[in-house]
């Protein structure tokens, strides 16, 4: 595990590697170039928006559907059917998800047809081809593909809460909203923190979904740090700069990993 990390860190202090037979040490010049690159900061902003919105909605949808599947208000057969349907997005590979949503969001696809049918005039909107809409579109796709993990994990957490706690709160006069905030959420807090940190780490490093839907375009509207780094290496063949970008991402990921490790230690 240490060898490739050390190699990338080493590459980052040369003027270029792999394509240059005699690379020269440039110290921190590559880091200065990356940090002052406007495209890097745009990719960073896109990554931040993409991550924060995805994680927040994953939490809300996951908890909502988990509570739906944990309630006695619907019968066991209907609950079992819901479990199958709601977990389906998680069963698809990223390639299938990308192809599926590219067809759905095509200007002549199902989404535009349905919106126009119900009276929302969107015409032939190209959701993945519009600089103003593309980032929101890929964020929705990522939310759709990722919420089942939260749903399943939180459902297990809900089923682990003793029923006696809810019954005691009910006897004390707590209404459903009060029981949710004072019993359910405190019991799920360690799980919510762990899931949130893990999802932040995973989402900030999302590459295949972006690459197979928009490729970081149009006009950099969906460029994230992972696609930015990939293009430096395999489109521009600037492997030293790509390594530098990777090291910067690694440092940010280490901060998140430390927070996650500390949250697990506190939970234990």
List keywords for this structure.
268 residues; mainly alpha; MetI-like fold; 12 helices
Question: Could you give a quick summary of the protein structure above?
Answer:
The longest helix has 33 residues, at 38-70. The protein has helices at 2-11, 29-35, 38-70, 76-91, 94-104, 110-117, 134-159, 163-171, 176-204, 208-213, 225-234, 239-267.
What is the fourth-level CATH superfamily?
MetI-like
Instruction: Give a quick account of the main beta sheet: strands, pairing sense, barrel closure.
Output: none
**Which fold name fills CATH's third level, the topology?**
MetI-like fold
Number-wise, the strands total: 0
What is the CA-CA span between the terminal residues?
27 Å
CATH class: Mainly Alpha
Can you write the helix and strand succession as a string?
Answer: HHHHHHHHHHHH
Secondary-structure arrangement, i.e. CATH architecture:
Orthogonal Bundle
* pLDDT < 50 runs, ≥5 residues: none
Portion in helices: over 70%
What is the count of helical runs? 12
Shape: globular
Main location: membrane
Organism: Cellulomonas avistercoris
Subcellular location: Cell membrane
Pfam family, one: BPD_transp_1
Task: Give a description of the structure.
This protein is mainly alpha-helical and 268 residues long. It has one domain: MetI-like fold (Orthogonal Bundle). 72% of the residues lie in helices and 0% in strands. It has twelve helices and no strands. It is globular and about 75 Å long.
């Amino acid at each position: 595990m240490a060898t490739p990390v050390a190699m990338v860190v080493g590459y980052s202090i040369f003027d270029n590697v792999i394509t240059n037979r005699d690379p020269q040490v440039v110290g921190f010049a590559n880091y200065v170039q990356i940090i002052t690159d406007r495209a890097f900061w745009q990719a960073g902003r896109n990554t931040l928006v993409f991550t924060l919105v995805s994680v927040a909605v994953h939490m809300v949808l996951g908890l909502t559907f988990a509570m739906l599947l944990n309630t006695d208000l619907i019968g066991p057969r209907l609950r079992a059917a819901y479990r199958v349907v709601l977990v389906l997005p998680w069963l698809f590979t990223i390639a299938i998800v990308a192809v599926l949503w590219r067809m759905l969001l095509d200007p002549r696809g199902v989404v535009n047809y349905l919106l126009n049918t119900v009276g929302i005039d969107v015409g032939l909107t190209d959701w993945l081809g519009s600089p103003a809409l593309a980032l929101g579109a890929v964020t929705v796709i990522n939310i759709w593909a990722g919420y089942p993990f939260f749903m399943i994990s939180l459902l297990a957490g809900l089923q682990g809460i003793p029923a006696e706690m809810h019954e005691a709160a009910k006897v004390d006069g707590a209404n459903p909203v009060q029981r949710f905030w004072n019993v359910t959420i405190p019991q799920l807090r360690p799980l919510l923190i762990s899931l949130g940190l893990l999802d932040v780490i995973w989402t900030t490093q999302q590459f295949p979904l972006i690459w197979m839907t928009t490729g970081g375009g149009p006009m950099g509207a969906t460029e994230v740090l992972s696609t930015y780094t990939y293009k430096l290496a395999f489109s521009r063949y600037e492997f030293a700069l790509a390594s530098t970008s990777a090291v910067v991402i690694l440092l940010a990921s280490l901060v998140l990993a430390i927070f996650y490790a500390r949250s697990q230690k506190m939970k234990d």
